[in-house]
Structure formats: C-alpha cells, structure tokens
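Page 37, continued from 36.
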C-alpha cells in the first residue's frame, strides 16, 4: 500500500430505499472494490438507510491520515441529488451558489409555487431536507454518476443476451 492509498478514501454514495436490495448491491460493490484496492472504502446514503453521507465520511476518516476523499454517486444519471443535495452535504457549494432545482411530474408554471405547495402534496418525498453536512478539512473530489458509459452498455447487452 502506497502512502497515497493511505491518504485517499473512497465514498460510494447511494440513494437509499425502503427495500433492502439497493443497500445489498451498494455494499457488495463496496466489498468488491475493497478486494481489488488498498483504499479505505465507505458507503453513505442520501436518505432512509444509515449511515448518512456525513456519518460515512466521519467513519471513513476516523483514526486515519486520509486527506482526500473521492466521492462517487452510484446513480445512473444526474438529478437533484447529484446536482444540489450531495454537493451541499459535501460542502462543495455554499448557500450563495445553491441553485433551486425543481423537480416534479407536472408543470408548475401555471401557478405560483406557494399556492402549489399549499394546495396539494406530491406523493413520494420532497427534497427540502436538512441534511447533516460533512466536516472534513481535506480535499473532496465529487465524480459524475455512472452515465452513458460503454461499460454500462456492456451490462445492458449482457442482460439482453442472457434473456435471449
């Protein structure tokens, strides 16, 4: 293990789900990466599961010399969590830089937001959480989600071929 390996930690970030399958997958991926790497690896969740992202970072750096964290959102594409929530939690954007990303299943332009908010509820969950913020003095590198990567395409092709 090089000194660089000891100074860098890996944080896999998952959304969290009421069902156990997502946490089983992300924890298996973390274990698989640990098997091929000397980096210390932690998993943090946006919501529902523990540990949350900030707690995962605390556990990752506790009693170590970690100066850099590479945070990977294990999401397929960018969304409100990867563009707003996670950067805020990681301390990568401050209040002045925060962008108000609205997300919904319908058009809000026909009425004002306050009326919209007061007159009905979305099913599911809102993203106006008060997330615990990361306290870390080192460097945090926040990567893109998985995206339209050729390796993801290989998985899709395999699923198709296995089904034929």
């Amino acid at each position: 293990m090089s000194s660089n390996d000891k100074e860098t930690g890996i944080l896999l970030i998952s959304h969290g789900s009421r069902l156990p399958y997502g946490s089983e997958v992300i924890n298996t991926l973390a274990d698989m990466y640990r098997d091929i790497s000397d980096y210390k690896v932690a998993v943090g969740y946006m919501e529902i599961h523990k540990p949350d992202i900030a707690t995962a970072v605390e556990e990752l750096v506790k009693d170590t010399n970690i100066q850099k964290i590479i945070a990977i959102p294990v999401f397929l594409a960018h969304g409100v969590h990867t563009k707003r929530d996670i950067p805020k939690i990681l301390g990568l954007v401050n209040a002045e830089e925060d962008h108000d990303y609205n997300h919904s299943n319908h058009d809000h332009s026909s009425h004002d937001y306050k009326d919209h908010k007061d007159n009905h509820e979305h099913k599911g969950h809102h993203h106006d959480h008060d997330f615990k913020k990361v306290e870390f003095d080192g460097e945090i590198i926040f990567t893109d989600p998985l995206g339209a990567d050729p390796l993801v395409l290989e998985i899709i092709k395999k699923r198709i071929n296995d089904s034929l």
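The chain is about 35% helix and 15% strand. Flag for discussion at group meeting. Residues 38 and 74 are 20 Å apart (CA to CA).
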